[in-house]
Amino acid sequence: MIKRFIILFLLITGFYAVQAQGPKLTALKVEQLVNPLGIDVKQPFLSWQIVSSKRGITQNAYQVLVASSASKLANNEGDLWNSGKVNSSESIHVKYSGKELNSRTKCFWKVKTWTSIGESEWSENNFWTMGLLYYKDWPKTWIGFDRAFPWDSITNNSRLSARYFRKEFESTKGIKSATASIVGLGLYELFINGKKVGEDVLAPSPTDYNQNVKANTYDVTSYIQNGGNAVAAVLGNGRFFAMRQHEKPYKIKTFGFPKMLLNLHLVYTDGSTEDIETDDSWKGTANGPIRANNEYDGEEYDAKKEFLGWTQSGFDDSKWLAAEYVQEPSGTIEAQMNENMKVMRTMQPVSITKLSGGRYILDMGQNMVGWLQIKVKGVKGQQIQLRFAESLQDNGELFTANLRNAQNTDLYTLKGGDEEKWEPTFVYRGFRFVELSGYTYQPKLTDFLGKMVYDDIKTIGTFETSNLLINQIFKNAWWSIAGNYKGMPLDCPQRNERMPWLGDRGEVAYGESFVFDNERIYTKWLQDIRNSQKEDGAIPDVAPAFWRYYSDNMTWAGTIVAITDMVYRQTGNVEVVKDNYPAIKKWLAYMQDRYMENYIMTKDSYGDWCAPPVTIEAGRGKSADKKYPSALLSTAYHYHFLQLMMEFSKLTGNEADYMSFETLATKVKDAFHAKFYNNKGFYGDNKLTDNIIPLYFGMVPAAETEKVFKNIVYIVEVTNDGHLSNGLVGVQWLMRCLNDYGRPDLAYTIATQKTYPSWGYMIENGATTIWELWNGDTAHPRMNSQNHVMMLGDLLIWYYENLAGIKAGIPGFKKIIMKPETVDGLQYVDASFDSPYGKIKSSWKKDKKAFTWEITIPANTSAEVYLPADSQKNIKENGKSVQQADGIEFIRQDGKNMIYKVNSGNYTFQIK
C-alpha cells in the first residue's frame, strides 16, 4: 500500500540561537501543520523556518538528524539519518534519505543551520510515526452489518441508522504506548474508555472508495487504563452509503453499508506487544439513538434509545449482535495526509422570532457551514424539529426552493427529565436560518450554539484596506472558502449536490492559497482526479467521481493542470508536478485524438458558465443551468495547458516532450487567431471573456495587442458602464488582465461596484458569503446557491499580488516580487501571508504628502521591491536615505518605479 506520491510536510521552527561568534536570532515556535502520526511515505520531505528580525539572514548549510528514540536524538545520534553538514540554502522539501523505515517506526528529528550570521543551535525535537505500510499489517477482517434493519428505509431519500460497535479487553501490564489506526466508512467516531479519541469530526476524508480509502492514526496511550478497557466506534453513512440510492443509478455511485477496520496496537513497558483488532468477537447494533443520518436530509436522534456507558468497560452488551464479517472495499488503504474536519469556530445566534403554529426562526447572523447544538427540556418522547436554510422569504418563512430535494432537517426525540444537550454527529449543512418546532416554551438564544465545521486548515493570510466594501468581500470570501472545505473542495454546502466540481476551482484555488494553507487538501484532490481518470485518458467533471460525469471539455477537466501549477508555484513542491504529469499528458492526448480538428479544439461543454444576464430583470426567474459551448475557449485553454506542459516537461526530466508541446502550441495559436480573430480588434463574439482569455494567455500577435486591449477597456467602461460581464471562466483572468496591461484603476472600479453585476451587489443585497450567480437574488432557485466560491475568479489573487504586492518571484517564495498598485481611492492596504519560508507582510498607506510602506521579508529569502518613485533621492528607509540603508541594493529604474533587491528583515520606506 505504499503510494508513489504523498509528501509529508512537517513545518517546524526551532529555537535558533547562534553561537558566540554571532548575535542571537529571534525565537518563534510554529505549530506543525499536519498530524505526523501514521504516515505511509518512506521518504517524507522535511521543512523548517528560520525566524529572525535581523536583516539579510540566509542559510548556507544545514544538518538534519533523525533518530529512533528521543534519547538518541538528545545525544545528537542520528541512527536513522544523519545528513551531515549539507552546503545548501534549501530549507523546504528536503527529502529524508536515511535508513528504510518500517511500520510503526517513530522517527524523532531536529535540524540546525549555518546562516550568514553564524551557526544555530539545534531546533526543538520533532517527530513523525510510520503507519501500517503493508496490507498484511492491517487486521484480516472488516466488520459491519451489510444490510438494512426494519426501522431503516432504503428508498430514494435513504434513512439508514448508525452502526455501533464495541469490544472489551484487559490490560494488566504497564503501558509504554498505544496507537489506534482506523478506517471507518463512511464516517466514524472512535471512543476508548468513555472518551472520544481526538477532535476530528466527519472523518475520514471522502474518496472514491473503489479506488482508495483513507486511514487515520491516533496516539491513544493516555486513554488506556490498567484492568478493564473498552474500545468503541459508531459509524455513519457519509459518501459511502450514498444520499440518493435510486434517483439516477446510472449517474450516482454508492459503495455499500458502513463498515470498519481497526487496529489498536499496545506496547507494554516489558517490551511485549498486543493487538486489538476488528473480528467477530466485537459486539454491534444498529438499534441506537442515531436513527438516520443523511448528508442531504439530516440526522434523526432518539435520546430514549441511548446506551448509558456503552463506550466503557462493564457495559452489558449481551443483547447486542455479534459483529459480522463483511466484504472489504476495493480501494487501497492509504494514510490520510490531509487534515480532517473539526469544529473550527462557534457562534451565538443573533435573534429568535416567533412564527405561527408554535414555530420559531433562529438567525445566526452569518451564512455558515456546520450544525447547531441545542439545549432543551421536555417530556419523554417530545420531538424537536430543526429545519435549515440560507435565507428567508418575504413573509419570514424559510426559503428552501434552492435546496432542491435536500430536506436539511434534524429531528431530536427527548428522553425527558433534566435539560438535554444535543448536536448531530454525521451531517452538516449550509445555513443562516433555522426553523424550530416542537417547543412547549419560548426558547432562548443561549439555548443554541452554531458550530462551524471545515478542514483543520490554518488561515495564513490577512487582508484589510481603507475600502470597507473590499474588506467585506474578503470576509465573505473567507466564509465561503472555509465552509466548502470538506476533505475535498465542494461547490456548495446546502442543496442536494455538494460535489467537488473541477471547474469551480480552476483558478479560484490560487487565490485561496493566500488565505488558507490549502496545499494538502489540493494535493489530495489531485489524487482524487487521477484516480477518476479512465484508461483512455478521460477526466470527469466531478472528482471523486461520485457522479459519473465525463463530458470531455478543457475548462473543467483541465483543472488538474491548473491546480498542479498552483500548488507548485505557491509551495515550491515540484513533486506535485511529477505526480500529475503522466495523467495530464494522457488526458491531453485523449482530447487531441478525439476533438482536435485543424488544431481547433472543437469540444466544449459549458462555455463561460453562468455569465450574468444583461440586466437583473432579464434573468428574473430564469435558470442559469444553460450551456453555451465555445470552441474559442476550449482552443485557448488547450494552448494555455500546452504552455504549462512545456515547463512541466523540464521540471520532471521529460525534456524530450518539450519540443512536441512547443510545436503543437505554435500551430494551435496560429489556427486560433486565423479562426476567431476579427480585424476590428476582437475575438469571437466580442464578449469580454472572448477577448480576455487569448490576451492573457499570450495568443494575440504583438501588432494586435493594443487594439484588443482597447476593445476590452471599451467593453468594461462603455458597454458595461464599469462592470464585469464574465462567467466562471472569464472571471478567473479578468482582474489580472486589466492590471497587467496597465489599468489597475479599472480593476479597482469593478472590484468596488455596488450595482449589478458585482461582488458588491451581492453584499448590498444581504450576502454574507459569495453567491453562485451574479443575479442570485432574482434567478430561478433551482441553481442558485448562496454559498459558492466559483465567482471569486482571480479577485483574491489581485488583492494579494497587486493591491498588496505579494507575489512569488520563483515557486515557493524564496524570491518575492513586491509591487503594490497604489490605485486612486485606496488610502491604505495592510496584508500578510505565511509563505513556506515565513510571514511576508506588506502594509502601505498614502496621503497627499507621502507614501509609507512597511514590509517584512522572511529569513532565507529576498525580494525584488518596486518603490513608486522617480528618484532615489525621494526615498528613505526608516528615516535614512535608501542608499545608506542596510540590506538594500539598487537594481534599476522601470518607469515610475525604483527597483531594489531587499534582503530578509523588516523595512519601512517613506517616499515624498
Automatic annotation (TrEMBL):
Enzyme class: hydrolase
Entry keyword set: Hydrolase
Residue ranges of domain Alpha-L-rhamnosidase six-hairpin glycosidase in the record: 459-803
Reaction it catalyzes: Hydrolysis of terminal non-reducing alpha-L-rhamnose residues in alpha-L-rhamnosides
Pfam family, one: Ig_Rha78A_N
Annotated GO MF terms: hydrolase activity
Keyword Hydrolase: yes
Domain Alpha-L-rhamnosidase C-terminal stretches: 805-880
Enzyme nomenclature, EC number: 3.2.1.40
Bacterial alpha-L-rhamnosidase N-terminal domain boundaries: 174-344
Domain of life according to the entry: Bacteria
SUPFAM superfamilies: Six-hairpin glycosidases
InterPro entries: 6-hairpin_glycosidase_sf (IPR008928), 6hp_glycosidase-like_sf (IPR012341), Alpha_rhamnosid (IPR016007), Bac_rhamnosid6H (IPR035396), Bac_rhamnosid_C (IPR035398), Bac_rhamnosid_N (IPR013737), Ig-like_fold (IPR013783), Rhamnosid_concanavalin (IPR008902)
UniProt domain Alpha-L-rhamnosidase concanavalin-like: residue ranges: 354-453
Protein's name in the database: alpha-L-rhamnosidase
